[in-house]
């Protein structure tokens, strides 16, 4: 029987946090739970986020299959963001965090 090194065992919470990303991701997800949004709508709704931080967050979530990015051939191009099934599955967890935050902070 092989000895297991506890340092090498992956934590599912850590894996989930790596997929979700930083604090801006939670705010983007909160907005997208309401439905499809454009970049400008997200920027307006999330106070304090820079365009660079929003772009980085959206790319991270897209790369982790949490959201989809759809580009429409208009001038200028229209880009919309929507949650995937994987992204929608985060709704319950985010809702529980919101409830906890309102109770304990």
UniProtKB/TrEMBL annotation:
The keyword Nucleus does not apply. Keywords: DNA-binding, Transcription, Transcription regulation. The keyword Transcription regulation applies. GO terms for molecular function: DNA binding. Pfam families: HxlR (PF01638). It comes from the Bacteria. Residues 11-105 form the HTH hxlR-type domain. InterPro entries: HTH_HxlR, WH-like_DNA-bd_sf, WH_DNA-bd_sf. This is MarR family transcriptional regulator.
């Amino acid at each position: 029987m092989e000895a297991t090194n506890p340092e090498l065992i992956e934590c599912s919470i850590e894996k989930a946090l790596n997929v979700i990303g930083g604090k801006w991701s939670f705010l983007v997800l909160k907005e997208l739970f309401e439905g499809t949004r454009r970049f400008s709508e997200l920027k307006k709704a999330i106070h304090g986020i820079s365009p660079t931080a929003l772009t980085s967050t959206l790319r991270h979530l897209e790369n982790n299959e949490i959201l989809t990015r759809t580009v429409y051939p208009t001038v200028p191009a229209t880009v919309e963001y929507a949650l995937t099934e994987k992204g929608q599955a985060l709704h319950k967890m985010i809702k529980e965090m919101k409830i906890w935050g309102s109770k304990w902070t």
